[in-house]
Design a protein that fits this description.
The chain is α+β, with helices and mostly antiparallel strands and 203 residues long. Helix content is 57%, strand content 27%. It contains five helices and four strands.
Length: 203
């Protein structure tokens, strides 16, 4: 009841104002409302702008991820295929090289085998709490051979046949000496052929 009385008194007060005073009060109220609206706009506008910028960043990130997805999946497939090759590689270098030499009509005189670890997971595990669990290391196995009196064509076809196999085999070293009388014939060739595999090793 008191509230209604105050509201009625406010209207009576306004009615008693002159036209000019009413205009000034109206302008004052309008300015207050406008100022309040500007303040609300600035506060809310900044929040909306920050949210919009965040959404733009998320959209850009998502767009980059989608653009690189195919490339990532392709690279992952290649890595998986390489890992499978290394896990399942049971190639015997001596047999492969001798068979290919026989097809091309020359003889490999001697083989020198070498094996080395390209990773050292087994050593790192051994330094810890004496674990007996087997670990996997990448191993390089190689055969260094000597070949005498072989033509350039035979050598080229031999190297191509060796490196075009599905197993991970590479010629990692090559040294050749030609005959003085015929540059198309090699007096002696020394080369190293290597293969790679993942091997379980006890620490």
């Amino acid at each position: 009841m008191a509230e209604k009385g105050r509201i009625a008194g406010l209207f009576d007060f306004i009615d008693r104002l002159s036209t000019r005073e009413k205009a000034m009060v109206g302008a004052l109220i309008g300015a207050f409302v406008l100022t309040l609206a500007v303040i609300i706009y600035l506060v809310i506008g900044k929040q909306i702008q920050a949210l919009a910028e965040r959404n733009d960043t998320l959209r850009t990130t998502l767009s980059d991820v989608m653009a690189q997805k195919d490339s990532y999946l392709l690279e992952k497939a290649k890595l998986d295929a390489k890992k499978e090759q290394l896990d399942n590689n049971d190639v015997k270098l001596v047999r492969v090289m001798e068979d290919q030499a026989k097809r091309l009509g020359f003889t490999i005189e001697d083989f020198k085998e070498n094996k080395r670890f390209l990773t050292e997971n087994h050593r790192r595990v051994k330094k810890r709490a004496g674990s007996k669990k087997k670990v996997v290391d990448l191993v390089e196995e190689s055969q260094t051979v000597t070949i005498r009196r072989i033509s350039l064509d035979q050598l080229s076809r031999f190297l191509q046949a060796i490196e075009s196999r599905r197993e991970p085999i590479k010629v990692t070293r090559l040294n050749a000496q030609t005959l003085t009388a015929d540059r198309q014939v090699l007096r002696e060739v020394r080369l190293t052929v290597s293969t790679y595999r993942n091997e379980e090793v006890e620490p």
